[in-house]
């Protein structure tokens, strides 16, 4: 089965579906950091993630490898959710 080509399509090899502009070498998290709501969401999630990092450190000092791994995973996921939630808030 063949499909017909899309009429009036513009092919841009330097861009993907998810990029809005030219690529840069710096890390882009999807919103501007500053005194705004997305940065507040990110700061809140980062603060909670730091608590879990402290708990992971305590477990690591006590030799509890399972607790260390769980707390590290939780801290990473909470920080990642902070970035995603900040991006969602910035689009609203």
Care to describe what's here?
With 92 residues, this protein is mainly α. The protein has a domain at 53-92. The protein has two helices and no strands. Helix 1 packs antiparallel against helix 2.
Number of strands: 0
User: Class by helix and strand content?
Assistant: mainly alpha
The mean pLDDT is 80
Any idea what the radius of gyration is? 20 Å
Query: Could you name the ranges where pLDDT drops below 50 across 5 or more consecutive residues?
Result: none
Distance between the termini: 42 Å
DSSP strand content: under 5%
- N-to-C SSE series? HH
Shape category? elongated
What is the count of DSSP helices, taking H or I runs of 4+ residues?
2
Report the biggest beta sheet as strand number plus sense, adding barrel if it closes: none
DSSP helix fraction = 55-70%
Q: Which tags fit this structure?
A:
2 helices, mainly alpha, 92 residues
Q: Short description, anyone?
A:
By secondary structure, the protein is mostly helical. It has helices spanning 37-61, 65-90. The termini are far apart.
